[in-house]
Amino acid sequence: MLMTFLRVPLVALAMAAMCLAAQAGTLKDIRKVSVAGDGSVSKDVVALTGQQLKRSARSTRRPVALPKVAMEVHLANEIRGAGAQAGRNSAEVTVLLRGGSGAPVESQRFTVNSFMTGKAADRALANAISQRIAVTYSLAPVRAVSAGSRGSAKAYRKQQPAARQKTAPQAAEQASGPAADPVIIPSEAALTVKPRVRKPKTEASAAKTPAPCVVTATTSCN
């Protein structure tokens, strides 16, 4: 009974040791990444794959010192699905690792599939290739390219000239100072109207109030 109980941990330790040995043979410190493709592969797929893999390699941190290698990725035989297979795309990927002396250290070849139609097909295929390579060589997770990253940048660049054109007149107005008051020319009717002048209250009250009576030799106040 005791032997049966001990066999399970021993088998688990043996499996773990085999996995570590296999990983030690493939795990490398990737310092440089280059991506190329043949005539069948879209230029956008090559460019996006290179950007994502380089960013992933820079973000990878190894816990121990490992042999430094350079990664060369070659893409070939890109196939775009048509008809009933529309949206099903694939490409053959060959990954070659070179040591410090430039000698080949390791090579792998596999096919990557993606499922996307329209303009996003290149982006989806590049994301699938980058993620497959990152998982195979234990690199940092790949950040997928967002759909609006390029469009927003182009829109921002287009808005810049318009914004500058709008701010130029405003700056000229501020430099010239406040505008002068407009000149008002009266019409002919306004010139013929006679102004109404009100008499002062003191004069009106004095005209209505009778003057006091003064008794003289010829005047009687009765």
TrEMBL record:
Name of the protein in its database record: Uncharacterized protein
Segments of this protein annotated with the region Disordered: 148-211
Signal peptide positions on this chain: 1-24
Record bears the keyword Signal: yes
The entry's keywords: Signal
